[in-house]
Write a structure and sequence with these properties.
Elements: H1 6-29, H2 36-64, H3 68-79, H4 83-97, H5 102-124, H6 130-153, H7 155-161, H8 169-175, E1 180-187, E2 191-197, E3 202-208, H9 213-224, H10 231-245, E4 257-261, E5 289-292, H11 296-302, E6 312-316, H12 339-346, E7 352-356, H13 362-368, E8 374-378, E9 381-382, E10 392-394, H14 401-404, E11 405-407, H15 408-411, E12 420-424, E13 432-434, E14 438-440, H16 442-449, E15 453-457, H17 463-478, H18 483-497, H19 506-509, E16 512-516, H20 524-551
Parallel strand pairs: 1-4, 4-5, 6-7, 6-8, 8-12, 12-15
Antiparallel strand pairs: 1-2, 2-3, 9-10, 10-11, 13-14, 15-16
Helix pairs in contact: 1-2, 2-3, 4-7, 5-6, 6-7, 9-10, 12-17, 17-18
Length: 552
């Protein structure tokens, strides 16, 4: 039966009606699934629904050239992404605007903190845990009752928290600057769907999944994270991925910035490293500034933030491979010889405060956090694949396992108002990969806390090359460059300076990715001196002409 037969067209239209009904049911069900685990299962189970919708929308678009089907496909893709993270950001907004009494908000915050504290105690305790588990059960029950009260007594809180509206394709287009191209991927079971849009155009692509694509992406990731892998072999592999996933999409419009919404295994790829030269090596980053976000709806939320005065809070704890706390992983954390140098050089570009060695404690981090617009953490990160919420960033040791480690679970209770958080640590952007949600990583945890953008890493990074990259990145930021361009120029400069040595391997420069709101940071210090300089010139001019007039 041909694609254009009336029977097939009717079948696809019937599929769209079923998908639309299914999405309505999902939106109704989601508030009834209280735990994150249950919500993740719901999203996983709903994935075939979204894939069916995208396939039907694509086939109807391909057969009719009616680009309204691209708008519909974009909606399906958005509905499938970052459901939990968006709900968390909407909940924070709901507590701000729903006129809930302060005592209830304070108790809610206390309960969340106490629950997390007990969960960490249970995880790290080597003795009988029954009393701790009983106390945890009671706290969780009190928390459930409090949330039920908030949702029942404050309707605006409920409506804001469970707002299921996603950004439309047209709204996403209006938010894009002239030279921006947004590419949203959906990684299905049979095909990858890509929707590309700029301010005036939109296109949809269907990329069949070859049998070896999954193995190829995993192999590329393995080679990227190994400084001894063959650069030409890596270039050949990444060119094939570029040719499949990106080359057809980049053929329309003149773009300098790419905003990538990855999905599935594509989360493992730093698109900057894709080779665009079939006969040699030419990296995508040399032509495009690249940033990432989980969904266009999330990006819209992050772009609503008002920028802060940009001082920076930087941490560089010391490590010696020993452990004075009960967490045995702590003993695996070897010295970072360059992390103090890294934060010292960053503070040449921005005013701020650095905590190093023993002063780089979790206590100092939490107590100083609200006073700064940017946060830089040059430390170790440990990913826990068995319990992703207990992946952590390590701070200076002070004899208490719970006090020295910042877990992903802690970030759900942390409130920060930072325009940029840089996690200069190994694998800070990697975590348990969930369909639609992406990585449940430390980086994602900072979005929960209120960060507008995050610079994170995709593999175990080199301490020395990271210092060079980060120094350049912050210098570029201080010169007024947007975050994606600042990272692009830092990576290009690193490449140019190391073309003829081993440091040109992508392992050393391409692990860092920038996610979220990439707007330039406002550098009040520069403006202050600019204004003062202007005043000096005006006053000097006035005095000069007044003196000259008096002489005449």
């Amino acid at each position: 039966v041909s694609l254009n037969s009336l029977g097939n067209i009717d079948n696809y239209k019937n599929t769209l009606e079923t998908v639309n009904l299914g999405i309505k049911i999902l939106d109704t069900l989601k508030p009834t699934f209280r735990s994150k685990a249950d919500q993740l299962f719901l999203i996983e189970d709903a994935f075939p629904l979204f894939e069916s919708g995208l396939e039907a929308a694509y086939q109807l678009y391909a057969s009719s050239s009616d680009d309204s089907y691209i708008d519909l496909a974009f909606r399906y893709s958005e509905k499938s992404k970052s459901v939990l993270l968006l709900e968390a950001l909407l909940e924070a907004k709901a507590t701000q605007f729903a006129n809930i009494p302060n005592d209830l908000l304070e108790r809610e915050s206390e309960l969340k903190s106490e629950i997390t504290y007990l969960e960490k105690q249970i995880k790290n305790s080597e003795t009988d845990k029954s009393n701790l588990k009983d106390a945890l059960f009671s706290l969780k029950e009190e928390y459930r009752q409090l949330v039920r009260k908030l949702e029942t007594d404050y309707k605006s809180y409920y409506n804001l928290k469970y707002n299921s509206t996603t950004v439309s394709l047209e709204e996403a287009q209006k938010s894009l600057a002239k030279n921006h191209l947004l590419i949203s991927y959906f990684y299905g079971n049979k095909a990858i769907y890509a929707i590309a849009l700029n301010g005036s155009e939109k296109k949809m692509f269907r990329i069949p999944i070859a049998a070896d694509l999954e193995a190829s992406i995993k192999k590329v990731y393995q080679m990227l994270s190994d400084p001894k892998s063959d650069v030409m072999a890596l270039g050949s592999a990444t060119y094939k991925i570029y040719e499949l996933l990106l080359k057809p999409i980049l053929n329309f419009g003149d773009h300098k910035k790419l905003i990538i919404i990855p999905d599935g295994l594509l989360n493992y790829l730093p698109f900057a490293v894709l080779n665009t030269n079939p006969g040699g090596i030419g990296y995508l980053v040399e032509n495009y500034a690249i940033s990432y976000v989980n969904s266009a709806t999330l990006l819209s939320e992050l772009e609503e933030r008002q920028p802060k005065e940009h001082t920076i809070l930087a941490f560089a704890p010391s490590f010696d491979g020993t452990v004075s706390v009960s967490n045995p992983d702590r003993g695996k954390l070897l010295p970072l010889p360059n992390n103090k140098k890294e934060v010292e050089q960053i503070l040449r570009s921005f005013h701020g405060r650095a905590y190093v060695d023993g002063d780089a404690s979790l206590h100092n981090f939490k107590s100083q956090l609200s006073s700064f617009g940017m946060v830089h953490l040059a430390t170790h990160a440990i990913f826990d694949d068995a319990a992703p919420e207990y992946s952590y960033l390590a701070f200076a040791q002070h004899g208490n396992a719970v006090e020295d480690l910042l877990y992903v679970a802690d970030l759900y209770n942390l409130k920060l108002d930072a325009d940029l958080v840089t996690l200069s640590a190994c694998e800070s952007g990697i975590g348990d990969l969930k369909r639609g949600e992406g990585f449940l990583s430390l980086a994602r945890g900072f979005f929960y806390s209120g960060a507008a953008s995050i610079a994170s890493t995709l593999w175990k990074i080199n301490d020395a090359s990271t210092t060079t990259l980060m120094t350049s990145f912050y210098k570029n930021l201080s010169n007024g460059e947007s975050k994606d361009i600042a990272l692009q120029n830092a990576q290009i400069a690193f490449l140019q300076n190391n073309r003829d040595n081993a440091l040109s391997h992508p392992y050393y420069w391409s692990a860092f990715v920038i996610s979220g709101n990439t707007a330039a940071v406002s550098f009040s210090y520069n403006w202050t001196w600019f204004i003062l300089g202007t005043l000096v010139v005006l006053v000097s001019g006035f005095l000069y002409f007044k003196t000259k007039k008096g002489v005449n």
